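Dear H.,

Thanks for agreeing to be a second pair of eyes. The structure we're designing against is below in token form, covering all 76 positions.
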């Protein structure tokens, strides 16, 4: 397994920000997958993609709330 190089960014919120960004990107990317599955008539797969998308949406909202709370604590 190849290990990713250490991030040059040493911000204590970096991992949270990156995970949040990935959740939001997955929400957007899954739109294409859902449309593709719907176009093929594969409702089972489209439904599963929608569930995955909803999980990412929930994680994204939780991440935004967590980041906001941390930034507010840091900035008094």
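And this is the sequence the design step returned. I haven't edited it by hand at all.
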């Amino acid at each position: 397994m190849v290990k990713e190089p250490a991030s040059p960014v040493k911000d204590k919120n970096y991992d949270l920000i990156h995970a949040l960004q990935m959740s939001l990107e997955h929400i957007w990317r899954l739109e294409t997958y859902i449309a593709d599955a719907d176009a093929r008539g594969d409702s089972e797969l489209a439904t599963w993609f929608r569930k995955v998308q909803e999980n990412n949406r929930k994680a994204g909202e939780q991440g935004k709330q967590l980041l906001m709370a941390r930034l507010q604590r840091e900035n008094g």
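Two observations from my side: The mean pLDDT is 92. The chain has one domain: 14-74.

Warmly,
E.
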